[in-house]
Structure prediction request, 247 residues.
Amino acid sequence: MLLDEVAPGVWRAGSKYVNWYIVDGGTEGLTVVDAGFRGYVKKLDKTLARIGKSRADVKATVLTHGHVDHVGMASELAHSGATIFMHPADFEIAADPTSVKNEGRVGKYLLYPGISAFVLHSVAKGALLPTDFPPFEPIADGETMDVPGNPTVTHVPGHTDGSCVLEFHEHGVALVGDLICTVSPVSGRRNGPQILTRVSNKNSAKALSSLDLVEGIKAKIILPGHGDPYLDGIESAIASAKAVGCR
Prediction:
């Protein structure tokens, strides 16, 4: 069970394949960012207990985008009292994962070292189970959210239409969802920050363009949906992702 404190009051949870995060907003409670696969709920209570918390402390769950590996526990967290937040452009894919239409053909990637393990993990953790996406509140570009930790939202379309980055200023972290990863779940590539492979993106060219939208982020700690934290700030992460390009 993965649980690392990656900044004061910020924990990375999930698995070696997919991250979700916990942000402690002090007396206001917790904000969970992203919700992993549906099967991750089996370890949710134990994960929260390790930092002395419970589901009752989770006041908000903010989803960086609507893919099945980021929204899986949303319904359970909603049932426990958390308000769910997401950009409305991703409602269709969150409610019906079969509606996802990405570029690139899966066959091209079948020999990549990461894809078989990721697919097997996805199926084992409930990616093919019927969805039960809960009601949610919309988030918008430029908004500072009234949730524990008060993140600022930057809308970064490309990976999905509604992908967003969340900067928690007081915690010094930026949670970038799948705009940037430090390990590709498909290719297994680990050579620094990158955008995801074409088969994972709705529009890879737009994802690359969206990197420019986060240039103003001040946080030094960049927390991706896949892979380890990146500690050298957003400018370095952007430069790396642009150098790697679309694959």
